[in-house]
Every structure is written in C-alpha cells, then in structure tokens.
Specification:
Largest sheet: 2 strands, antiparallel
Number of domains: 2
Number of helices: 9
Number of strands: 4
Order of helices and strands: HHHEEHHHHEHHE
Distance between the termini: 10 Å
Helix content: 55-70%
Radius of gyration: 27 Å
Strand order of the largest sheet: 1-2
Strand content: 5-15%
Mean pLDDT: 82
Low-confidence stretches: 271-298, 302-330
Shape: elongated
C-alpha cells in the first residue's frame, strides 16, 4: 500500500479542492457565461480533477468490493482516502478469481473515463473542460501511471493483472489495455481538433473584415525554431511553441486569402489599420481624391494565437493525477 506519502498528497489535493469549492459560488456566473477566459479554464480544470476524481476513486474501489463479494471473499473492508484507497479481503481464492478482483477496479475506471470523455467532448464550455479534466486524470492514471507504479514498485492492481499465474488472462488484459490506449488517443486528438477549430473561429471573428499581419518578432521566432528543428531535437516547450506559431501563420494566410477574395476589384488589400475586435464601420461618403499623405497603413498586427497548438487539457498540463490501490492480502 502507498501509506503516508499518498495520504500527504491527498491532504494537499483536499486543501486545493476546498479552496476551489470556496471560489465556486463567487465565480459561477463568470464561469458559465458566454465569455470563457483562461481563468475560467483553470477553474474548470480544477473542478473536474479535484472535485470529481474522488467520485472516480470511490467507484474504482467499489468495483473491487463487488467482485470480491461475488467471488467469495471474506471480511471485506474498504479504506477510502478521498484521492486513493484500497480494498482488503480474506479467503483462499483461485488465481483467476484474484485476477477478476484485481481487474475490476481498473476496468471500471477505464470505462468511466472513456464514457465521460466521449460524452462531454461536444458540450459547450465550461462543461467540456470539467468533464475532460476528469477523463484525462482517470485515463492517464489507469492506462499509464498506475501500471508503471506496479511494475517499478510492485504496488497495486497491475501486479496481479499481469501475473505469471494467469498468462491467458494477462493476454486478455493486454488487449483491453491496448484498446483503451487507442480510444484515449482518439479522444485526445478529437479534443485537440475542436480546440484548434474554436481558436481559429475566435480569431476570424475578432478580425472580421480585416487583413492581418504577423509581427516581425513572431515571424523571426518561427524561423529560429524551424531552423533549430532541422539540426536538433526540440524540447517539449519548444515543440509546443513551434506548433503554436505554425498554426498562427497558417491561419493568417488563410484569413487574408479569404478577405482578398471578397474585396472589390481595385480595393486596397491592406486597408486601414483597425483595432482588434472592432468590426469595420459603415462605409463613409466618398470624398474628392487627394494626394496620399504617406504609405498605406499596414494590416493590424496579431500578437498571439491563444490555445492553438496546445494540448487543450487546461489545468492538466502538469499531469497531476491521483492514485488508487488495492491490497488483496492483509
């Protein structure tokens, strides 16, 4: 069992969860209105992880209890520590029965995480981020972190799920495990595509009717990263930044092309510099032509491209997940 370190981590999570609960009433209206900010995204991620994960932990342990009861375990007890827990039982059971008991918790977590993720992926914000925050935590734990802990430290369910005592059932577990990883990757990619599309739509709406120009320093940074990519392996943060800037560049080219296609013949492609977010006003009355006072104004510069090229996990960028445990032998 994980013992004191897991208890300390649970206390830390619980403290942040109580703070989140304290914040919710005062920020509920801004969280659920039509304007979804980065602060709202952060709060939604904390709600999904810190407030919903304890429910997932409890369902995980209850699945262990139910299977142990059904297969003849005695003196079954549940120790629930909010962000982790374990089940104990007595009785000499067949290896296949112990495999079923060990598998019940992770299988319940896998089904729960996938069901929540696919159910909320098309919802509007903040409900999507709340549900996806919980789904990411649950699936990353059951598919990656928890199996790794079992292999490295001999802790938890997967030391029984992939036991040499049940080789055929271990193969079954491996197939389900691989299928779960594929389903999770599909879900994460779907979420990324939705986030990119929404970011593009927000920028297009913000700069409606205007051509845009990428700031020179942003273009210079893009060139530096692309040059570095050709000679070395980029760091994760550099890779994320490169993807971010490439998406920004691609969007600006597509947006300017669309604007150019709707401009009347002979119109100035650059047009006046408009404040970001302010749509063009009504056409002014034509005045007699006069010599230009200077070069035409440049299109409005674009400072950044929020959320495009990012993983869309909100508060999950740090990868903090909870842990579950089960000890079938007291």
């Amino acid at each position: 069992m994980l013992g004191a370190p897991a208890d300390l981590l649970s206390l830390l999570y619980l403290g942040v969860a109580l703070f989140t609960l304290w914040q919710l009433p005062g920020r509920w209206r801004s969280l659920t209105d039509s304007v979804y900010t980065d602060d709202d995204r952060n709060l939604a991620g904390r709600v999904g992880f810190l407030l919903l994960t304890p429910v997932g932990v409890l369902l995980h342990e209850l699945a262990h209890m139910a299977s142990a009861t059904a297969l003849g375990g005695r003196d079954i007890s549940l120790s629930y520590r909010v962000y982790w827990g374990y089940v104990q039982y007595r009785g000499q059971l067949a290896p296949a029965s112990e495999w079923v008991i060990a598998s019940a918790g992770p299988f319940a977590s896998l089904i729960l995480g996938l069901a929540v993720g696919y159910a909320v992926i098309r919802l509007r914000q903040p409900w999507r981020d709340i549900g996806m925050s919980f789904a990411h935590a649950t699936l990353l734990l059951v598919l990656l972190l928890y199996p790794g802990m079992s292999v490295l430290d001999g802790v938890g369910d997967f030391r029984w799920i992939y036991s040499a005592r049940t080789p055929e059932l271990s193969v079954v577990a491996g197939v389900v495990h691989a299928a779960g990883l594929v389903a999770y990757l599909v879900l994460a990619r779907w979420q990324s595509r939705i986030s990119k599309r929404e970011a593009r739509e927000a920028l297009t709406e913000r700069f409606a009717g205007q051509q845009v120009a990428i700031r020179p320093e942003i273009l210079a940074r893009l060139q530096v990263l692309e040059a570095a990519e050709r000679v070395r392996r980029l760091e994760p943060d550099e890779r994320a930044e490169l993807n971010h800037l490439r998406e920004l560049w691609e969007w600006s080219q597509e947006h300017n092309q669309e604007i150019a296609e709707v401009l009347p013949p002979g119109a100035d492609d650059g047009g006046p510099s408009l404040s970001p977010g302010v749509p063009p006003g009504p056409p002014k009355q034509q005045q007699p032509a006069s010599p230009p006072a200077g070069p035409p104004a440049s299109p409005p510069p674009v400072d950044g491209y929020p959320h495009i090229g990012r993983n869309g996990h909100g508060a999950y960028r740090d990868g903090h997940v909870s842990d579950h445990d089960r000890d079938p032998h007291p």
